[in-house]
Specification:
The complex is a heterodimer of chains A (418) and B (220). Chain A has 418 residues and is α/β, with parallel strands linked by helices. Chain A has three domains: 214 residues, NADH-ubiquinone oxidoreductase 51kDa subunit (Rossmann fold, 3-Layer(aba) Sandwich), CATH 3.40.50; 85 residues, Ubiquitin-like (UB roll) (Roll); 90 residues, de novo design (two linked rop proteins) (Up-down Bundle), CATH 1.20.1440.230. Chain A is 44% helix and 13% strand. Chain B has 220 residues and is of the alpha+beta class. Chain B folds into two domains: 80 residues, Arc Repressor Mutant, subunit A, CATH 1.10.10; 82 residues, Glutaredoxin (3-Layer(aba) Sandwich), CATH 3.40.30. In chain B, a hairpin with a 2-residue loop joins strand 3 and strand 4. In chain B, helix 5 crosses helix 6 and helix 6 crosses helix 7. The relative contact order of chain B is 0.13. Classes of the chains: A alpha/beta (418), B alpha+beta (220).
Chain lengths: 418, 220
């Protein structure tokens, strides 16, 4: 559904997108009305694809119904979670899929202006989206009186300047307003006080793209795929040690091992599986045992001890150096911490130093206890979840791959090559 | 189109193989020539270019750039919100954002110098000092790292004869380490000015650099 037109340059144009049923979703949404559109999305059970999995219809229904103040829809296209590369594909192959999704979302929440916050590195995909948006304006699909409905919806492309934290919803709002991308304390929640102090909703690219299809076909239609708690299809980004990495769209609930072994052609060189990070770098690491029965839906991955996040499956084979990779992740979070909260600013840096010391063969067994202690202090103590995001891989890696750490600490032996 | 192997279509795994040209994948034909004045106001705040040519003394802003700046301002309810796009625009022209540039942008938007410095230094993509004609950003985050990104970074440094973050003596190349570029399925991902080069292996590095050297005078 979402990925049907990936790889077809024709689908980038308005004509090409309309040829596959594009812009029928917004036409139907305008016809059935705002409330019915939200009801459709609620009935579909669509959950936010940016990582948290919050029900989209419910989020939309939080927006005030009778306020005279302007409402804003913000599309989060600041894709930067390590392991995730799905939104860029949607934007560069099917820009109109996203534009239509933004129109549906804006209509549903009563916004007359939508900002698409793109990460600054996406020059090429931003150019494709910009061209598509100009085309959509010229065709009367965006702007004043869209599709002759009397409704005005503007869309503006806004690009960031390189900060992972701007993918956090309130950090994104601050960045859009021309501030440092520091997350805000909640409450107030964005639906009450969001961008420019006005009621706002933030949705991920994939969420809005799916909403366009739901608007076209209705909520029940979407439930033909997936599970009761995780309806619909999802783009799985598979990276790391597999023969055929890439984006694969499957119904939620797809078995993890089937994705790795069959769809992605298994692990190169006949190596054995060591670990999988199932939802982007911010979730607990799973060992091979956890993976065996894991199904890729929100509840399935949770049962296996981790989180689906944005379904970014990072596969690590037996040659992987877990300590080095966790240290690399820690370095990333230390670099990207905005520095507002002490547990995060200090914790991510301390953790990086300790992990580096262990990697260099100068660690002690006490260091492992210290790492766990710091990680616990980094959990639930800050404005946003950036520090929790590092705590989870640290704690889970020490729990599941303690031997790898001990080999370095006791004997200076590095386990794995990469 | 070029001898640099171009293997990334993103969706390759889905079909097993592909026969698209580089232009198809990058969408360059569809995009066509982007206008310096920013085109439609709705897309003016996006950043279409990172040029080979940098003009550190270019005025802020004149001609088509002035038009683009005015279009940007028209898209936000506050002047402050135009700050990031305005800094992007300044960097597009000048190649980097010096403290003086920050102050000039502050003046244009009616913000204090100190405020703009605080914001500009928060973001990684603003080059705080001059960079080479090609800024080579090698992702070494987890997915690329598992597949040998550290070696690719070392190869870029070796073949350009530079240290990390320094500019080669001919002024062509600055090589830096980047955080995840969101192309994890195609390691190693390297962003060079505005373009992504994906599936770059150690062996590909000389060919990529040769291509860039030929493009020095093309201006994109």
């Amino acid at each position: 559904m979402l990925s049907e037109c990936f790889g077809d340059p024709q689908a980038r144009t308005v004509a090409g997108w309309k040829a596959v049923g594009g812009y029928e979703g917004i036409a139907r949404a305008l016809e059935i009305g705002r409330e019915a559109t939200i009801d459709d999305v609620k009935a579909s059970g669509l959950r936010g694809r940016g990582g948290a999995g919050f029900p989209t219809g419910l989020k939309w229904s939080f927006m005030p119904k009778t306020s005279a103040r302007p409402h804003y829809l913000l599309c989060n296209a600041d894709e930067s979670e390590p392991g995730t590369f799905k939104d860029r594909e949607i934007i560069r192959w099917t820009p109109h899929q996203l534009i239509e999704g933004c129109l549906v979302g804006s209509w549903a929440i009563g916004a007359s202006h939508c900002y698409i916050y793109l990460r600054g590195e996406f020059f090429e995909s931003t150019n494709v989206l910009a061209r598509a948006l100009e085309e959509a304006y010229a065709e009367g699909l965006v702007g004043k009186d869209i599709l002759g409905s009397g409704v005005d919806i503007d869309i503006t492309l806004h690009v960031g300047a390189g900060a992972y934290i701007c993918g956090e919803e309130t950090g994104l709002m601050n960045s859009l307003e021309g501030r440092r991308g520091e997350p805000r304390i909640k409450p107030p929640f964005p639906a009450a006080v969001g961008a420019f102090g006005m009621p706002s909703t933030i949705n991920n690219v994939e969420t809005l793209a799916a909403a366009a299809h739901i608007a076209r076909h209705g909520g029940e239609w979407y439930r033909q795929w997936g599970t009761e708690k995780s309806p619909g299809t999802k783009l799985f980004c598979v990276s790391g040690h597999v023969n055929k990495p890439g984006n694969y769209e499957f119904p939620l609930g797809f078995p993890l091992m089937e994705l790795i072994e069959d769809v992605c052609g298994g692990i190169p060189g006949g190596h054995a599986l060591k670990a999988v990070i199932p939802g982007g770098s911010s979730v607990p690491i799973m060992d091979a045992e956890d993976c065996r029965a894991c199904t890729l839906c929100y509840e399935g991955v949770e049962a296996a001890g981790s989180m689906l996040g944005c379904a970014s499956v990072i596969v690590m084979d037996e040659t992987s150096d877990i300590v080095k990779q966790v240290r690399r992740m820690a370095h990333f979070y230390a670099h990207e911490s905005c520095g507002q909260c002490t547990p995060c600013r200090e914790g991510t840096t301390w953790a990086t130093r300790i992990l580096q010391r262990i990697e260099d063969g100068r660690g002690t067994e006490d260091d492992l206890d210290t790492l766990v202690e710091i990680s616990e202090q980094m959990t639930g103590t800050t404005i946003c979840v950036l520090s929790d995001s590092l705590a989870m891989p640290i704690i889970s890696s020490i729990e599941k791959f303690r031997e790898d750490y001990l080999a370095l600490i006791r004997r200076g032996e590095r386990v794995g090559a990469a | 189109m070029s001898e640099v192997r171009f293997r990334n279509p993103g969706w390759a795994g889905n079909t097993g193989e592909f026969d698209l040209s580089e232009a198809d994948v990058r969408g360059t034909e569809y995009v066509g020539e982007r206008m310096l004045d920013g085109g439609h106001p709705s897309v003016a705040p996006s950043l279409p270019y990172m040029f080979v040519r940098k003009e550190p003394d270019a005025p802020l802003f004149e001609g088509p750039y002035r038009e683009r700046f005015d279009k940007i301002r028209s898209r936000y309810p506050t002047a402050r919100a135009a700050l990031l796009p305005a800094l992007n625009l300044a960097q597009e022209l000048r190649g980097h954002i010096s403290p003086e540039t920050m102050d000039e942008v502050a003046g244009l938007l009616g913000l204090s110098d100190a405020y703009v410095r605080g914001v500009a230094t928060f973001y990684t993509m603003y080059n705080k000092r001059p960079v080479g004609r090609f800024l080579i950003q090698v992702c070494t985050n987890i997915s690329c790292n598992l597949c040998g990104a550290d070696d690719v970074l070392a190869a870029f440094l070796e073949h350009t004869g530079t240290e990390l973050g320094e500019t080669s003596s001919d002024g062509n190349f600055t090589v830096v380490e980047a955080e995840c570029l969101a192309a994890c399925g195609f390691p190693t991902c390297v962003q060079i000015n505005s373009r992504y080069f994906e599936d770059v292996s150690v062996d590909d590095v000389p060919a990529v650099l040769d291509r860039l050297k030929r493009e020095v005078n093309k201006g994109f």
